[in-house]
Amino acid sequence: MPIPIVQTRNLTKIYVRDVIGTEFGRLKIRLKNRKVAALKSLDLDVNEGEIFGLLGPNGAGKTTAIKVLMGLIFATEGTATLMGKPLGDKSVKASIGFLPENPYFYDYLKGYEFLNYYGQLYGMSAAARRKKIPELLELVGLSHAEDLPLKGYSKGMLQRAGLAQALLNDPKIVFLDEPQSGLDPFGRKEIRDLILSLKEKGATVFFSSHILADAEVICDRVAILSKGRLMNVGAMDEILSARIKAYEIEAMNLSEDMVSELEKMSERFIRRTKTVLFVVEKEEIALAIVKKIIASPGHLVSYTPRRETLEEFFIRNIEPQNV
Amino acid sequence: MSKIWAIAFNTFKEAVRNRILYILLVFALLIMASSGIVGELTISARERIITDLGITSINFFGLLIAIFVGIGLVYNELDKKTIYTIVTKPIDRHQFLIGKYLGLLLTIYINILIMVFFFLAVIYYQGYMDFDVMSKALWVEQANGEWASPTVISYFMYYAKAIVFSLAKAFGTLTLLYHSPLTQGILLVVFYGCLELAIITGFAILYSSFSTPTLSAMLTVLTFIIGRLNADIIVFADRMKEKGFETSTQKMKYIFAWVAAHVTPNLWLFNRRTSLAVDNVEIRLEAYPVLYGILYSAAILYLAVHIFRKRNFK
């Protein structure tokens, strides 16, 4: 059994709100209910080399979990280790890349200067920086903007710059907090490809997201958080495959009698220009329909058992939160 | 150490690319340039007024930079969340804070250097000019409509030469190649001022490591004022003790004054302006204020680091 590269045990974070604070722009004095549990006894194991998705609705505690792991905030209870060492270990920090949610950087720096500064913080030599920075700018598609101050960058460009800084040290683990938020479909696809290429290079990718469709495609394993609690963790097919939600049967050239007969057997029926689609929940009925179509002069176009999507899983299991 | 310097230089870069710094600097230079005119208003003490005004503006603008850049230094990093990607790099939180501190000091000292250079040039320039004689001569010529007469031309030639020589002498003074008793005094007064600013900058960073910029600014100014009055407060407390305490309120006042005076820095140690400009006392380099300044700044920075280390970056 390999040692998990990220491990948390009973990780809990309770925020204590200030007695005097603002809420919706108004001054508010709060004497009771000051404690807010953002993360409740989280136990996670992430294995080396996998793409691990931390999923959940807004306010579920995803960012809190990442911030604790990054040493930005301190856990109220529980322990966590990265690469087998306690949080905050400098040698571990040297092999980590981190992209925060909606990253904001020193906007007076130019693209190249920015990466050069961060390279210095990683302790890279001047020669190493001169070699690595153009490569990275090329990789994230910012070569044209290396002399432009970050002030002039669009949101997507900032996200790319943020990714570049997270990859400066060829990290062993990359933490990405909502890497796709605010990006257009092209940007999202590029990030997806990048995450996959990091895995190919042997890096572990730990990322949080609420864009479930993407997570479904790339994650080896996911953990689902809701209201600070871990709801479910496991490989994507462990969580979803047990439940085939429906069978879709598409056929063409069926006689009208046949269509009306099969329509009665199925839960849903859709007529398209050339084909008809039957949706059935039970496997026996689905197979019976298929047999009838094959026996008839019509053609079977497709037979698709459709499993539950992550989104459907979410909606079924997790109630929306007022955050 | 190289990481601390990387942070310090980046902080310096941030300040240099900030417009406020230039506005402050230009304003300070204007005041110094106009000190000649203000000097004209006095009957006999022109040199004293110029020295006084120059040193005061150097100290004052140094203080403004320390407070207004210092208070935002840590707060902005937290507010804009730029700190997230910095402290997750292989550096310690104290390296970040010390780097920020050194970067701000570097910014302040370079500004002071520019101001001192300009100020010295103004002083040397004053030495070349006998304005009364020259303006009278000029006035007669111009009244006759002779704008390009030899007097006017030689006057402007002299004027240009005086500027070049003053700038050269100011440069010589800063590189310690050339000095007059007055300018040497000025350099020492400014040096003491720099020590004072090291302490104030420390306080600005300390306050900004746990409160908002506005509150930090108020606390820093308050610390500066109490620090400057420190010696007076000690005298006041001692007098109260000599008289004896009749009521418990008096005793409370004494304890408060004693604590305030001993916790806040004694900034009076660094204020040598009056000795130079008013009392004409020779300024010397003393070990005590230098050590005091360095150790006090280090202590304040240590406290700031201590608070900063335990902070949650929400």
Describe this structure in words.
The complex is a heterodimer of chains A (323) and B (314). Chain A is of the alpha/beta class. Chain A has 11 helices and 16 strands. Chain A has helices at residues 62-69, 90-93, 111-121, 126-139, 155-167, 185-200, 212-218, 236-240, 256-265, 283-295, 310-317, and strands spanning 6-16, 20-23, 26-29, 35-46, 51-55, 77-82, 85-86, 96-99, 173-177, 204-209, 221-226, 229-235, 244-252, 268-271, 275-280, 299-307. The mean pLDDT of chain A is 86. Chain B has 314 residues and is an all-alpha fold. In chain B, 80% of the residues lie in helices and 0% in strands. The A-B interface holds A 15, 67, 70-74, 90-91, 93-94, 96, 98-100, 103-106, 108-109, 117-118, 120-123, 162, 165-166 and B 2-3, 6-7, 10, 13-14, 17-18, 80-92, 310, 312-314.
How are the secondary structure elements laid out?
The complex is a heterodimer of chains A (323) and B (314).
Chain A: E1 6-16, E2 20-23, E3 26-29, E4 35-46, E5 51-55, H1 62-69, E6 77-82, E7 85-86, H2 90-93, E8 96-99, H3 111-121, H4 126-139, H5 155-167, E9 173-177, H6 185-200, E10 204-209, H7 212-218, E11 221-226, E12 229-235, H8 236-240, E13 244-252, H9 256-265, E14 268-271, E15 275-280, H10 283-295, E16 299-307, H11 310-317
Parallel strand pairs in A: 5-10, 5-11, 8-9, 9-10
Antiparallel strand pairs in A: 1-4, 1-6, 2-3, 6-7, 11-12, 13-15, 13-16, 14-15
Chain B: H1 2-16, H2 19-33, H3 35-41, H4 46-79, H5 83-87, H6 93-128, H7 131-143, H8 150-174, H9 181-208, H10 213-228, H11 230-243, H12 248-263, H13 273-277, H14 287-309
Helix pairs in contact in B: 1-6, 2-4, 2-6, 3-4, 4-6, 4-9, 4-10, 6-8, 6-9, 6-14, 9-10, 9-14, 11-12
Main sheet of chain B, how many strands, which sense, barrel? none
Number of helices of chain A: 11
The CATH architecture of the largest domain in chain A can be named as: 3-Layer(aba) Sandwich
Task: Report the average pLDDT across residues of chain A.
Answer: 86
Helix content of chain A: 25-40%
Order of helices and strands of chain B: HHHHHHHHHHHHHH
What structural class should be given to the helix and strand makeup of chain B? mainly alpha
Strand content of chain B: under 5%
What's the name of the CATH homologous superfamily of the largest domain in chain A?
Answer: P-loop containing nucleotide triphosphate hydrolases
DSSP strand tally of chain B: 0
The most extensive interface, with participating residues per chain, is: A-B, 30 and 26 residues
CATH topology of the largest domain in chain A: Rossmann fold
Regions with little confidence, pLDDT below 50 for 5+ residues of chain B:
none
- Radius of gyration of chain B (CA) equals 24 Å
Count of discrete domains of chain A: 2
Helical content of chain B stands at: over 70%
Rough outline of chain B? globular
Q: Give the overall form of chain A.
A: globular
